[in-house]
Design a protein that fits this description.
The chain is mainly alpha-helical and 89 residues long. The chain has one domain. The chain is 79% helix and 4% strand. It has 3 helices and 2 strands; from the N terminus they run ββααα. A hairpin with a 6-residue loop joins strand 1 and strand 2. The longest helix has 33 residues.
């Protein structure tokens, strides 16, 4: 039983510790879902790539595809790490 005034430290018989683990697990899962959603948006951009090439905006579309792909990958990795840390505690 820990009761403290500093840095939100108020744990009574591990109940809040379990809530922290569940919260980290849910946060990690949410980040992974958002990362997958970013990749789905990336597929939507790829769908319109041929029309962009026709209008001469190939570099713009490739830049957008790369940026969204990297952002989705970063979110997936961050979500996986958060979920992994919640299982170790």
């Amino acid at each position: 039983m820990k009761i403290g005034l500093g840095h939100n430290e108020f744990r009574v018989s591990g109940i809040l510790a379990m809530m922290d683990l569940e919260e980290k697990h849910e946060t990690g899962a949410s980040l992974m879902v958002v990362g997958l959603g970013m990749w789905l948006m990336d597929l939507l951009v790829v769908t319109f790539l041929p029309s962009g090439i026709v209008y001469g905006h190939r570099a713009t579309f490739l830049g957008i595809i790369g940026a969204i792909g990297v952002l989705g990958l970063i979110l997936l990795i961050a979500g996986y790490k958060v979920r992994g840390k919640s299982g170790d505690d």
